[in-house]
Amino acid sequence: CANCGAEHPISKMFEVEGDWLCEDCADRLAVVCDHCGDRIYQESAIEDDHHTLCEGCFDEHYVRCHDCGCILRSYDAYFDDDDHSYCSDCWDEHEGAIHDYNYTPDLVFHGKGLRHFGVELEIDKGGEIGSNAEQILAVGNREHDFYYCKHDGSLDDGFEIVSHPATAEYHLTQLPWKAIMAEAVSLGYRSHQACTCGLHIHISRLAFGRTAAQQEAAIARLLYFVEKYWNELLKFSRRTPRQLERWAARYGYKEQPMEILDHAKKGYHGGRYTCVNLTNQDTIEFRMFRGTLKYNTLIATLQLVDRICDVAIYLSDDELKALSWTTFVSGCQAPELVRYLKERRLYVNEPVMAEAEV
User: Fold this and answer.
1) Which of 85, 180, 97, 156 is nearest to 131 (CA)?
2) Partners of 204 in the beta sheet?
3) pLDDT digit string (tens) for 294-348?
4) pTM of the model
5) Segment 132-158, tens digit of pLDDT
6) Surface-to-core class of residue 265, CB atoms within 10 Å of its CB (0-12 exposed, 13-18 middle, 19+ buried)
7) Where are the beta strands (DSSP E) in 166-318?
8) At what angle are helices 177-186 and 295-314 packed, to 10 degrees?
9) What's the CA gap between 73 and 98, in Å, rounded?
10) How far is 159 from 162, CA to CA, in rounded Å?
């Protein structure tokens, strides 16, 4: 034994970092690496309350949390701009306002009725910085809990701002979108100009009917409208066909609304990366639209989706099939939506000059 000098059969010895130890010395002086299973001297082990590791395995596969010191797998860690690593609990405290992508708070519904819209606005190029998110939320949540922020892996250097569900009217009159967007711009963020950002709108399924059959019939008509007027909605979205193919693919036009829904429900390969994402239990999600930090564009997008919901809910299949785009936009009365339709050359009247997107 390299420690006590006693002689033992080699079959009863234990190798520890190149030394041979007897069983008693090995039990007192050595531990086993949780990752590779090799015995190492305890004094050279890297440990916390849940891990015992050799130096090689730690360096290759693990990190310590910069705040609490716990050991965690490298792929489970969060890293800040200084390359400091954090466990999930400390990351929430460190980044504060920017939550994990899968985070969902207890939702607060604002406004009367069943048709609530949840908005996900992606912003980029200004940093995934918790203090920036806190500044934006300080503007948005002065009076009520309207917004929270989340990490989004599709962005280069930003995060997404998410609203609690609210009616279209409540978004327009109560939620401080204009102030939120101005604060984001002042901090150096971009959305439309970043080319990485989307504007996603969730609609509560209850808005389409109280029974599953009512909901499916209305959602089928909504999908039919999107497919029938794909070119007009593409122009409205400010996306390129290639961008939509990647992030918001179409299902494909069919003669009957329910045929499109049946196609979508039969495991369409796009999953959630479709123009209208149907994979959520409680909502459907419009994913077509490019991100924006221009207030009128965001409000107009909400109003368009609200108007499409009207068509899907209140028209029959035959009435929808007979509906023209001109008739549809002629029924759009909201001034923000009318202005945006004119800017995009999608309205029946003369177009107007558009301000630059941000």
Assistant:
1) 97
2) 283
3) 999 999 999 999 999 999 999 999 999 999 999 999 999 999 999 999 999 999 7
4) 0.75
5) 999 999 999 988 889 999 999 899 999
6) exposed
7) 198-204, 276-277, 283-290
8) 140
9) 21
10) 10
Residue 270 tokens read as: 């796009």
Q: Which of 70, 16, 64 is nearest to 38 (CA)?
A: 16
Sign of CA dihedral 127, 132, 136, 141: positive
Dist CA 316 CA 218 (whole Å): 9
Find out whether 285 and 202 touch, Cβ atoms under 8 Å.
yes
The gap between the terminal CA atoms of the chain, to the nearest Å, is 73
Q: Cβ atoms within 10 A of the Cβ of 242, count?
A: 8
- Helix then strand then coil, in percent of the chain rounded to 5, is 40, 20, 40
Instruction: Give the chain's length.
Output: 358
Q: What is the pLDDT of residues 157-198, one digit of tens each?
A: 999 999 999 999 999 999 999 999 999 999 999 999 999 999
